[in-house]
Amino acid sequence: MRKASGFTLIELMIPIVVVSILAAIAVPSYIQYIQRGKISEAVSNLSGARLQLEKYYADNRMYGTGGTCGVAMPSGANAQYFTITCVSGNANAIGDQTYTVTATGVAGVTGFQYTINESNVRTSTFTSPATGWNNSSTCWVTKKGESC
Q1: Using one digit for the tens of pLDDT, what is the confidence trace for 97-137?
Q2: What number of H helices and E strands is found in the chain?
Q3: Which helix (H) or strand (E) element contains residue 124?
Q4: Residues 6+ apart with CB under 8 A from 95
């Protein structure tokens, strides 16, 4: 008489359970890792825009006119995950003396918003669906649960 060979149901279920537990831990961590990579685009573009605006101010003694900043904001391939906008204000006889540059998340980072102004004040604002992130009026929050 020959003994039957093969796997029992228990032997098949044990690896499935182990893989499921590992996936439950790994997938959220991977999603956060991808988000942090996208956030670096916003931080980089905001810092670059600030430098360009300060150079523009050094040459023109204003940041722009009529609410429009004097330099072009990053777009296209340089702004895939965040839309970068700039608004100038506080006009005087020369031109606008303040600005606020805003990065608003679009692809995979919806609900994320970062800003910087002429005084180098940085803010982070998170709305639904970005849950678990801490808003800040003093810095850019780049990790879930992080605060300044």
Answers
A1: 999 999 999 988 999 999 999 999 999 999 998 888 999 99
A2: 1, 6
A3: strand 122-126
A4: 60, 61, 62, 63, 64, 65, 70, 88
Helix (H) or strand (E) holding 89: strand 82-91
Instruction: Report yes or no: 69 and 118 within 8 Å, Cβ to Cβ.
Output: no
Q: Which residues of the chain have pLDDT under 50?
A: none
Nearest in space to 109 (alpha carbons), one of 123, 124, 129: 129
Q: How far apart are CA 45 and CA 71, in angstroms?
A: 13
Q: Which pair of structure tokens corresponds to residue 118? A: 């002429």
For residue 129, say if its preceding peptide bond is cis, omega within 30 degrees of 0: yes
